[in-house]
Amino acid sequence: MTTIAAPRPSQELAHEPVGEDVVFCGSDWRRVVRWHDATRLGTAAFWIDQARRRPRPATYQVGSGLHQEVALCLLGGYGITERMAYHAYRRLLDEQLLSGEPVDVETLREALARPFDLPGHPRPVRYRFPSLKAERLAGALEYLRENSPPSIAQPVPLRDWLTSLPGIGPKTASWVVRNVTRTNDVAVIDIHIRRAGVVAGVFDPTWKLPRDYRRFEEAFVTWAHVGGIPTADLDACIWSTLATMGRGARLMFGVATLGDLD
């Protein structure tokens, strides 16, 4: 067994460190990650291999500008499926409520409160939290109209700036920036990514969201870099796999309940 230091973003590894211990270092933390063979389920190498095999999309961006991408990401989140968020976004877009012109909270709330006809659902489906999301979205859109964000060429300052918008924390802000820039400098850390990283040995189990978001992000960016995979692609692979598996992910992780990892 050998131990090697994880390369800095400007450096490259000569080979993937299969069978070696890799030292991950952040601003105020250090972890030794065992880089198993990719056939070992749930390991750091396993997820890198899965991301390599997954088709890489041309872009993660859905909206035509920053304000539309902010709207899409704000409409998603806890308790709201990706498909539901997208249909809500499409309704607001089709009704010209994301044109960049001022829009009031009640107009947004009314649009979100109307039931949605989703393919595969026998009955109309209601969007959760229409009042809360309308209030946050109206505030975010107003802030974007009245203030100039950092350039998309500066992904980290842009992400940090976006956290000043109503209802946007580091995860949502990173989601927006990942979509519009495809940068390798930020990571979208949610409960799925946290669980996968803990099981893989990349994340310290004592780290908590959102308190330790920077630590999670530093470790995740290093993980992707060691594996030679774009950060966005590794994130998307883990998220989509675990979101699809649902509670079945506990079998992969070897736990009785997913809550055991939280």
TrEMBL record:
<dbReference type="InterPro" id="IPR003265">
    <property type="entry name" value="HhH-GPD_domain"/>
</dbReference>
<dbReference type="InterPro" id="IPR011257">
    <property type="entry name" value="DNA_glycosylase"/>
</dbReference>
<protein>
    <recommendedName>
        <fullName>HhH-GPD domain-containing protein</fullName>
    </recommendedName>
</protein>
<dbReference type="GO" id="GO:0016829">
    <property type="term" value="F:lyase activity"/>
</dbReference>
<dbReference type="Pfam" id="PF22175">
    <property type="entry name" value="Ogg-HhH"/>
</dbReference>
<keyword id="KW-0511">Multifunctional enzyme</keyword>
<dbReference type="InterPro" id="IPR023170">
    <property type="entry name" value="HhH_base_excis_C"/>
</dbReference>
<keyword id="KW-0378">Hydrolase</keyword>
<dbReference type="GO" id="GO:0016799">
    <property type="term" value="F:hydrolase activity, hydrolyzing N-glycosyl compounds"/>
</dbReference>
<keyword id="KW-0456">Lyase</keyword>
<dbReference type="GO" id="GO:0003906">
    <property type="term" value="F:DNA-(apurinic or apyrimidinic site) endonuclease activity"/>
</dbReference>
<keyword id="KW-0227">DNA damage</keyword>
<dbReference type="GO" id="GO:0006284">
    <property type="term" value="P:base-excision repair"/>
</dbReference>
<keyword id="KW-0234">DNA repair</keyword>
<keyword id="KW-0326">Glycosidase</keyword>
<dbReference type="InterPro" id="IPR012092">
    <property type="entry name" value="DNA_glyclase/AP_lyase_Ogg"/>
</dbReference>
